[in-house]
Amino acid sequence: MARRSLWVMVCVLLALGLSLSMAMAQPRNEDSGNTVTVQEGTTLRVSLDSTLSTRSARPGDQFTATLREPIYVNGKEAIPYGTHIDGRVSQVERPGRVHGVGKLDIAFERISLPNGYSETIVASTVGTEGTPGSKVGKEGTISGPSSRKRDVEETAAGGGIGAGIGAIAGGAKGTAIGAGVGVIIGLADSMRRRGKDLELAAGTNLVIRLDRPLNLQVGGGNR
Fold first, then answer.
1. Helix H segments across 26-143?
2. Taking the complete model, does pTM exceed 0.90, yes or no?
């Protein structure tokens, strides 16, 4: 009887050990099925939640943007519409009095999914939509519209006004002198004023690109 009881106990222990080994061998759901990788180079279309301007922005200022198109990985939604992305202004350059082009560098730092999960993100701006005259350089710097056309028009207008005054005062010779004076005045006036500030209004659409792969737990909680 004692031997039988001992044998039964050994069998139970072996069965428990086998069950435990099988359970440990199974991959956990949170480590496999719920983790997705969005590859480097993936583009995300977002819209700014607030206005960024070279007139008022300062390095270190924080901002947020909202994803306006979901991202899919292997046919499954990895980043839903409405996901928030936190960013920071890294550099501001106001338009000068000669070149007249405002520039903004912005960095994207964190992405927060609607399920509450958040993760660090490394991405750069590659395009803007709805901001006439703006362009994005290779390093992600956003440049505003140039004031060169305005300066040329104002200088030409100054020359025309000067020529008119000169003609009244002294005929052909006066016209030439007046035109030259007018050009100088127009040029000096255009150099006195700054160019137009770059403004990315709230709702401006930006295209950003992942510079590193992004690993996300699509079914996880806060991180």
1. none
2. no
